[in-house]
Fold this sequence. Notes:
Blueprint: E1 10-16, H1 23-42, E2 46-48, E3 51-53, E4 55-61, H2 66-78, E5 84-87, H3 91-104, E6 107-110, E7 128-130, H4 135-150, E8 155-161, H5 164-180, E9 185-192, H6 200-209, E10 213-215, H7 222-232, E11 239-241, H8 247-258, E12 262-265, H9 277-292, H10 308-327, H11 332-339, E13 343-345, E14 351-355, E15 360-362, E16 365-371, E17 393-400
Parallel strand pairs: 1-4, 1-5, 5-6, 6-7, 8-9, 8-10, 10-11, 11-12
Antiparallel strand pairs: 2-3, 12-16, 13-14, 14-15, 16-17
Helix pairs in contact: 1-10, 2-3, 4-5, 7-8, 10-11
Amino acid sequence: NPIIPTGDTIKIAIVASFSGPAAIVGEIYFISVQWAAHDINKRGGILVDGKRKKIQVIRADTQSKPAVAKKVCERMILKEHVNVLWGTNGSHIMKVINQVAKKYGVIAQCAAALSDELYDARNFTRYSFMTSFQTSQIGRAAAYNYGQIRKKEKKFYILCQDYLFGHSMAEGFKEGLKLYYPQAQLVGEDYHKLFLTDFAPYLTKIKASGAEVVYTGDWIPDAANLLVQARQAGIKLPFANIFLDEPNFLHKVGVEGTKGLLNINQFGAPNPLFKNDLQIKFYKAWNDLWKTKWKAPFNTYLFKHPLGNIGSYMFQTYWLLSVIERAGSLDPEKIIKQWEGDSYEYISGKVMTMRPVDHKAIQDLHAFEYVPPAEQKQSFNIPPYSYFTGCSNTGPISTIPAEKIMPTLDPKLKR
């Protein structure tokens, strides 16, 4: 229960699912953004336009519905007078956020929607910045890892969610295979509706395909249902993923069922995890609160570590706040000028650079291979020398250099 300031503040609206099947996703965003805000507030806030202000984080529930998202964004701007719209789960929802941001001249931060199409010539708005990794980067990173680093598996099956994001994830991987692994074989490709509860028809096809790896962009709850049901069906194949890292469902699957998963990670760095005292101090500040104070829903395995996507959402927010501080203003034009071409270093050592022309982040990505607890010490190099004891987690880490996975740039975008 953090103290959230009110009144004359820097207001960030987290536009996300806080109800319905994906309600936990909104809470993941909230604690990540609120951590950064609380940290800055403890230091006295940020000096903007001649006045020192604290950061206020506001929940804005989209219910995972575009029409609701439009209404809630307009309410956030017109009634709450927010300075930033921060989003979100669902590229179709982020598209709405960007449209509203453009209409009212408000900064939007795309920290969690991943489709490249959001920043093509048709959809680009100078008010929005994409600080997350993107589908084309992810797909090419996975292909680069399998074709240029691992050089083992050759037969792949794509299973993604049937909307803009899922299809973008698939296209990125297919593009990556052509570029970095032309000898690979795509043995199947399917798309399923959001919030599917029965994956049996797809799992039957995967079993019969001869695939060696399943590539998916599914996020929870779909990600959990997919992996749990696959293992129950006797499918032991590795899944190349970005969201099959939620530890509550990983524990349900167990050590053997999670061994070999390959997570393309946007908060990674080469092993080991802890390289200096500052990183250890940051980690323990979070983990000690998780152990001793946090209540539901923040006291589960999901929130044990300030790493992975949680770490990324947190430091994408730190980047936003750093830009505002250095701009010295809440004037959107001054923020835009500061952010275009800006670079920012995360606590992990990872450096982010904002490409001016289309507002997409240039960054290295990392491939995390999941191994049993006894082998996790190569990554988690302080006591207890493992991330978890009840499931496999990060062991070997491979770096995919930024120059191999540059964000796609729409040639039709003229600025």
